[in-house]
Amino acid sequence: MQEDIERRTIAIIVKAPRLTARVLAVVLGAVAHEIQKGIEQRKTPQGRQSVAKLMNHHGTKNSMPLDGETRLFDQIAKGFKVDYAFHPKGPGQFLLFFKAGQVDAITACFAEYTKRVAALEKGQPSIKKQLERFGEMAQSRPQERERTREAVRDEHTR
Q1: At a CB cut-off of 8 Å and minimum separation 6, what does 113 contact?
Q2: What is the pTM of this model?
Q3: What ranges make up the beta strands (E) of 91-150?
Q4: H or E element: which one contains 30?
Q5: Averaged pLDDT score across all residues of the chain
Q6: What is the C-alpha to C-alpha distance for residues 104 and 85, in angstroms, rounded to an integer?
């Protein structure tokens, strides 16, 4: 019980020429506002989330089509710290929902995503394809026989 009370205790330091009830009420109101703001921030999910959770956020939402893998977009979006959700439309086709207030971050994120996708399609095959190609090359290569030389001793008879 004592540990629970100590964990929930906060300290407030006030510098004031005179500590009146009005000053104390203003300070406690500001502290309560900061605590409430922290609670609200912990409640709202960040990053990738379901469409339903994203729609519960305050403000307007926008969407744009996304073709291709979502995994690469996830990696890039973590760096931009945007809130987004995918809604599948078909195989390999998604609808990307995001907050309207984060339009600049989403466009920068999407620009980075398209740049990386273009680089992947341009000339760099995936690691899996490279491994398959090297495996085929190793199988088609003729096997080398190890040559051993035996030491032959001539035994001289006396």
Answers
A1: 72, 73, 76
A2: 0.49
A3: 93-99
A4: helix 21-43
A5: 82
A6: 17
